[in-house]
Amino acid sequence: MICIRCQHDSKYPERKDTHTCPNCGGRFAFEPRENDPFTDMAFQKAIDKVSAGGQVKWGVEHLYYELCRKPRIANAKVALLVMLLFIGFFMGFVVGRAAPAVLIVYIPALLLLLYMIAANMGTKVLPRGDFERMWDLWGSVHGKPKGVIARKPQDDKPARAPDPDIGDYSFDRAVICDRARTVDLLLANNFHFENNCAVLSMGGYPQQAFETVRRMLRRNPRLEVYTLHDITPEGCRMAHRLANDPAWFKGLGIRIVDVGLRPVHASPFHKLFEKSAQEVPSGGGISPDEAKWLSQHRLELAVIRPEQIVKRLFRAMSQSQQAARAATPLLGGRGATGRVAGSAAGVAAGAAVLLPAAAMAGRQDGQELARQKKQAADQSSSGGGDGGGGGGDSTWEVDTDSFSSDADVSDGGADSFG
User: What are the transmembrane regions (predicted)?
Assistant: First the structure.
């Protein structure tokens, strides 16, 4: 087993009594010869992958699924099957030469063995309890890994009063997530700053910024909204709810794009599905086929590596904006009259947290804002629709491409981005 500190490859008898490297004396966190499923090197490589070599912030949940993705032999039964396979090939060759008819029996038996081996190798769901034990042990031996996201405690104090001119600002785009952890991922990687967008959860996170930012979003008729979520009933209904909930965007003519994940994105991760505990009815943003899938399974967004989540979300936003500009150039365009960017100092001040929101948004002239609202209302009255069978004139649609099957179980989707 190779030491991650000095790269020395030690034999089990050299380390079994002390669990330390005989070369540098560093302690090993895991010992596969004592039933740990991974070596220290395999665990470190998984950390390197979820962090994109230290370039991306990541959550513990991403590491869990990275370890689940790692192919490994499930148990000693597979080794026995492999041995039987070789014996079968040898016996089939010897006996088949003397009695070719015997091959009629041997060939199906060998195919069955191959199937059993394939079924017991590859991706295996790692019990959560085992992972938590390994995570705690890794921290005690090697320390906290770089780049892991640790949420700061939410301040219970009332949010400070917003700046008097906060109403003059708005965001061009917003990403609404089902999990606070997904919000943490995007904020930690500066997605909001680099893409001039708000990032909120459906449940009101970040707590201090939530209501102020949501009011700002509702004031902008040119707003583009993107939903990002697990494959759950709640997640798959998010876009429909945003379009039809008066607390969000009902009646405002906002275009909402569900970028995923939905059941159509799930098949590459079939060995990582969780069982559903409820019967899910169709409607409210869920098709009959999706309801059938959701009645049996669930899948977390965290199965995809953080780097790919960020890149694919950016791609979804870019492609959606191009399509919107082609369809409605006046509403989709940038640089409207009376619109100026926030100051560089203000942007820098707001980069670390979502507030002050004005620091990451553009100021809107009052007449321009009124003109845009009227334009959005005119477009809605001429056939905007509700995009999903509910009331209101905000529309919603599904983007099935950005998180499509090339974000597969073997590499988290890196193939499509080189």
Answer: 78-95, 101-118
CB 162 within 8 A of CB 213: no
pLDDT tens per residue, range 127-183: 999 999 999 999 999 999 999 998 877 665 655 555 555 555 678 899 999 999 999
Q: Which amino acid appears at position 81 of this protein? A: L
In a domain, 243, yes or no: yes
Rounded to whole angstroms, how far apart are CA atoms 269 and 261? Answer: 12
Instruction: Verify that 242 and 374 share a domain, yes or no.
Output: yes
Whole-number pLDDT of residue 157: 60
In a domain, 152, yes or no: no
Residue 172 belongs to domain spanning: 166-417
Residues 261 and 280 in one domain: yes
pLDDT at residue 398 is higher than 70: yes
367 CB contacts (<8 Å, ≥6 apart)?
338
- What pLDDT, on the 0 to 100 scale, is given for residue 172? 87
Distance CA 123, CA 126 (A): 9
- Give the pairing type, strands 197-201 and 362-363: unpaired
Tokens read off for 104: 């009629």
Question: In this structure, what token pair is assigned to residue 365?
Answer: 């002239």
* pLDDT recorded at residue 312: 94
- My answer on whether 176 and 269 are in the same domain is yes
* Amino acid occupying residue 173: R
pLDDT for the residue 258: 97
Rounded distance between C-alpha atoms, residue 252 and residue 219, angstroms: 9
Q: Are residues 254 and 326 in the same domain?
A: yes
Instruction: Identify which has the larger pLDDT, 238 or 385.
Output: 238
**CA 316 to CA 400: how far, in whole Å?**
10
